Amino acid sequence: MKLVDQYIYAIRKKLPYNSRKDITSEIRSLILDNIEAKYGDNPTKEQVEEFLSAYGAPSKVANQYRNDRFIIGTGLTDLYFLIMKIILFALSLGFSVEFIVTLFQNKLTAIFISTGLLDLLLNIFNSILPSIGCLTLVFIIITRLYKDQIIDLDEDWTPNELKDIEVSPKVESIFESIFAIIFIIVALVFINISPALITIAENLFETSTLELGHRINIDVFKKYLIFISISWFLDIIYHIFILVFQEKTKAIAIFDIIKESIGLIIISIMIFDSNLFTNFSNALGFRSIFAIIAIIASFELISKIYKFFKFYVFNLN
Amino acid sequence: MNDKSKIIDNLLLELKRGTLVLSVLLNVDNPTYGYSLVQSLQEKGIEVEQNTLYPLLRRLEKQELLSSNWDTEGSRPRKYYIISSLGTEVLNELIIQWQKNQFVIDTMIQKGGQH
Questions:
Q1: Distant-in-sequence contacts of A15-20, Cβ < 8 A, 24+ apart
Q2: For strand A277-278 and strand B32-33, is the pairing parallel, antiparallel, or unpaired?
Q3: Which of A33, A92, A179, B82 could form a disulfide with B35 if both were Cys (CB 3.0 to 4.6 A apart)?
């Protein structure tokens, strides 16, 4: 019965991984039962061929056993690749701009430029892999969440099931999220690869007639980098959620409030950390910028909490 | 004519699909393996495609309406299915619904026959 074994082998390759052994054992048993009943104990090769061709193509047989579980939902695949392209573009842009800025800050020599270019390519390559990993992880989670949200109304549905559908405010424009992802990634690249750019910005400011009232202590600032990065990373995830769902569901609204609060807490701690600022004589400098950001973020947070209660708690549109 | 028979074939297929779960649950009160179930259904006049039946058995098992175990003692290992207590409860409910539907449809057919 080599032919049966080959047939089952062909089916096996297309079966769900976890239940391959069980399904193939069952199919084998069923096929042999059938052949025995139809042709007796010693069927000819032609008889087996006749039975197998009537039983169906291996892929067709295997398809009957598939349970359509996807790591990334089929409806999300296009978006997954779109966001991947956005991330690749933003990373390349971030590292390239950072490279150009560094070029202008240093003496241009052939060795410096060539090693810089090599570093640029290595940096882009090294950042792409974890980024794709994170993106994939986010989409796996979304696929699970998305699947739970889908209510099958195709068969035997009742209007009563509609009450479980959450009608959320539509997002005005997805381009805002696309630009936000690009901007945040470029900023993440900048701040992580060259925190000293802050000092460069300060120096540039002082080339004007104004004099800074304080400076950022880069060594202390570096300690905040991980928290700033996490906050921005949450921002990227939020915008990916918006792109996927194209509406602000209750869960996304809660996530938004949480990440906004985390961002506000981080910047507030930074403002009140006197070690972060050196040569303090007056407020003119990054401390004021942080304070302005904190004030804007506070208003945004209050507005988001207000909208959340208005829409989801009191159901006022 | 071809279109008509194609439409009838499709509608009959839908009818069969709708009753297949009920037919299977009614025939697994004793441990039954796939091939013997096909035979048993055929003897009772229910033609079923094997490729449809076996995945259905697995689905019913996953829904815990059937339980199964492998018998490795015979000439070849066979997976035996039997209705579970949950399956019996579901079956009883399906039977009640089936009888209601049958009564309604029969009544409609009789009324239609009078016209």
A1: A15/A62, A15/A65, A15/A66, A16/A65, A16/A66, A16/A67, A16/A69, A19/A65, A19/B58
A2: unpaired
A3: A33
Residue A138 to chain B, least CA–CA distance (Å): 29
Range of the domain at B9: 2-114
Q: How far apart are CA A268 and CA A221, in angstroms?
A: 14
Number of domains in chain B: 1
Rounded mean pLDDT, A64-83: 77
Is there a contact between A135 and A84 (Cβ–Cβ < 8 Å)?
yes
- pLDDT at residue A153, as a whole number: 46
Return per-residue pLDDT of chain B as tens, 115 residues.
Answer: 578 888 988 888 888 877 889 999 999 999 998 888 988 998 998 888 777 888 889 889 989 999 998 888 877 788 999 999 999 999 999 999 999 999 999 999 988 765 5
Q: Domain holding B84: CATH number? A: 1.10.10.10
Q: What is the value of ipTM here, to two decimals?
A: 0.74
Distance of CA B60 to the CA centre of its chain: 11
- How close A67 comes to chain B (CA, Å)? 9
B78 contacts in A (CB within 8 Å)?
Answer: 29, 33
User: Is residue B18 less than 8 Å (CB to CB) from chain A?
Assistant: no
Express each pLDDT in A132-164 by its tens digit: 999 999 888 888 776 555 444 444 455 665 565
Check CB contact of B70 with chain A, cutoff 8 Å.
yes
Helical pair A197-206 and A218-245, crossing angle rounded to 10 deg: 110
CB contact under 8 A, A55 and B50: yes
Tens-place pLDDT, residues A218-229: 888 889 999 999
Classified as helix, coil or strand, A210 is: coil
Shortest distance, CA B82 to any CA of chain A (angstroms): 15
Distance CA B24, CA B20 (A): 6
Q: Is A160 exposed, middle or buried (0-12, 13-18, 19+ CB in 10 A)?
A: exposed
Q: CB atoms < 10 A from the CB of A35, how many? A: 20
Contacts of B39 in chain A (CB under 8 A): 37
